[in-house]
Each structure stands twice: as structure tokens, then as C-alpha cells.
Amino acid sequence: MKIWVDADACPVVIKDILFRAAERTGVQLTLVANQPVPVPPSRLIQSIQVASGFDVADNEIVKRLEAGDLVITGDIPLAAEVIEKGGHALNPRGELYTTDNIRARLTMRDFMETLRSSGVDTGGPPPLSQSDRQSFANQLDKLLRKHSN
Q1: 82 near 74, Cβ under 8 Å?
Q2: How far apart are CA 43 and CA 31, in angstroms?
Q3: What is the pTM of this model?
Q4: How many Å apart are CA 70 and CA 82, to the nearest integer?
């Protein structure tokens, strides 16, 4: 298993959890973004900068992804592609996207997009809380344990 991070919108605190997890478990971690992303010096951690543009980083992740890999993203269409390709998708709040829940998430995303495009202010997501961070770390550890056996 490799871990891929949709790094443009990934919170720093989540990246720090991922850096520690990669070192602790020996899992290869790659951050993909269309701007430079600083990473600690490590043979396990790398950053790939792609060209600017809509979904360029997402497309690069999908292109490199292998079945069983884990992608960290809050992007629901990317998560759907990851699942379709046999990967795992986890958002920075600790929610694991699955074949059972991804269609409902896509439907809700599309609904909210329709509201926003018609002028309704839907607000944004709340700031990442301590319980979100803990949920993410717990779910990540669970996935890493499951796939290290």
C-alpha cells in the first residue's frame, strides 16, 4: 500500500500526522499538488508538483494509483474515482469513503453545488476540530494495520 495525498487543500496538521505515520510504518507517502509542498527529508516521503489547472493533481493521483493504495482527499469526485479503481479514500476529518457511501456523498455534493450556483450561501465546512484530527489518526492507523498484514 502507498499513500497519496491530494495536498493542495490538505490541512498542515493532517500532513504532519501522515509524515509521522509514514516513518512509523515504512509506508511510501506522496503528496501531489500544483504548488510546491514542503516535506521532511525522508526516503519514504516525496512531493510531486503538477501543472496548475482544474483536476490536474487529481488526475495525476488517479493515473499513478494502484488497487489497494490509500488516497487522502476531501474531493468527493476524486474519492469516487479512487474507489472505482480499487483504492481506499479517506478524508481529512476521518471519514472513510466506501462503495456504500460514495454515491450519497456525490449526490449531496451536486445538490450543494446547485444551491451555490443559484446564489444560496451554503457556508463552508467548519474548521478542523481536535476530534476530527483524532478521528483521522484513528482511521489511518486502522487502515495501515489492516493492510500491513
Answers
A1: no
A2: 13
A3: 0.88
A4: 8
**Residue 23 corresponds to which cell in the numbers above?**
516513518
pLDDT digits (tens, 9 = 90+) for 93-129: 999 999 888 887 776 766 668 777 888 776 767 789 9
Calculate the dihedral angle through the C-alpha atoms of 134, 27, 20, 9, rounding to the nearest 10 degrees: -70
Sheet with 88-90, side-by-side order of all strands:
45-49, 29-33, 3-6, 70-72, 88-90, 96-97
For 36, phi and psi rounded to 5 degrees?
A: -65, 135
HSE of 138 in the Cβ direction (CA atoms, 13 Å)? 9
Q: Do 143 and 3 contact (CB within 8 A), yes or no?
A: no
Q: What is the DSSP string of 14-47?
A: HHHHHHHHHHHHT--EEEEESS-----S-SSEEE
